[in-house]
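Pasting two entries for a bug report.
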Amino acid sequence: MASILDSLLKKPVAKAEPEEGKEPCDHSEQELRISLLKLVIDRYREKIEEYETKSVADMKGMVTPREQHISEIKEKITEEFHPYVYDEHFLSAAKMCFEFVSSFRTVSLPVSFWLSFSDMKELMAGDEIDKSLLFCSLLRSLGSESAKVFVTDSRNSYVLFQFGGKSFVADHSKKELQAAESGAEAFKLLSGKILYSFSDKEYEDFAEAE
């Protein structure tokens, strides 16, 4: 498994070189740039968040099992199985996917801003919902019909799926993939009240269900 993760995480290391005729930035200049970027974000916060607001249809569209980066990761993982058979290999592949996603740093963005899968791979980071979208997309690409993202009022997100008569909960805040005997037991592992769940196939608003 280590070799698979190494190949997934491998990226070229580019040496940072100053532009011709320019001196390397010292620490104080870097801090100034960060402060300026913070000012820009604060000034245009409302515009950014307005643009980044997602509808129900948009949320479903963010789980993308056929997206290029998802397909590439799936291919590397399923290469371990000759051939990949869902009933035999799905859970092992799902655990490998979870380990891969858990290797990304969890960050808190200063504004509501969605990272693409290519952004996440480049930064090796994402917030909880970004990581949930990535993991759910991978599970769906591996053949899971039940994988969904769940969002709670505690501002946490989880991925739940079923396999082999059990339910599984992926908690990116704790980097844990837990098994439960039933869906009801799986829900007890979530922090906070469920607001909504979705995949590329469906969306459910739990507030409307009450």
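Entry 2 (this is the one that rendered wrong in the viewer):
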Amino acid sequence: MDSYGTGKALLEPESESEAEAEENPFEVDMAHKASPLQRYLPRSPARAAAYLCAYQLAVYIIGLGLMAALRPLSSASSSASSSSSSSSGVGAVTTPDAIDGGGWQLVRCVSAAEGTWHPATDNLDGTGAAYGAYSDDYGAGDATFSVQWDSSATSAYLFALTDLSLWLVAGTSTVLSHGAPLLAAVTASSASGSPYTAEWYSREGKAEDPWVSVFDHGAADPGMVYGEAGKAGHMEHLGVGGVGACVWVR
């Protein structure tokens, strides 16, 4: 081997990996020690940002798919809830038997043509003299009558317009109480399936009382469902479109 040959061997370039190690020995070492996940992560910030955007887009698309899949279940749940509310008698109903478990006995009605509230003046204790011709066809709204009942054997009252667009249920103790206003405990009504309080007027010595309403007595439209002594006030609904008003007990 001549001196030129020896010199050529000394000056020959090293392998590619060895050259990289010479340029950056730490990078080669780290590549060997990196975890499998780290080996696939991009070193370029631009490429990392692109991967992140792609990942976020994938998550968004998957989320949209899940929402679309769950929407029918949500709709079915809402429908079931609405059906349950309707079956318990909240809102529009077609018969008193669908209200608060039913079992109601019709005891008093005033016709749409009467032009006033009930002629009775017994403050709903059932002791007033009977009048009119009894009719269980309350929906016609054309009968004015009353029968006697034993309030001590009565647990609850149902007040309603004859088209059942407005109605409420209240316990006997509430109905027979007095106050101006009276904070009446309403068990359920066409406005709510849950108990709540409404301000009624039930003043002693006032023949037209008690005024029984779905909402507060002082509201612009209290939703009046009962009054006495042939009073012509609070006629927002009574008599409109042939609608009368009735009372049931149980």
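Dev reply: Rendering is fixed now. As a check, the viewer should reflect this: The radius of gyration is 41 Å.
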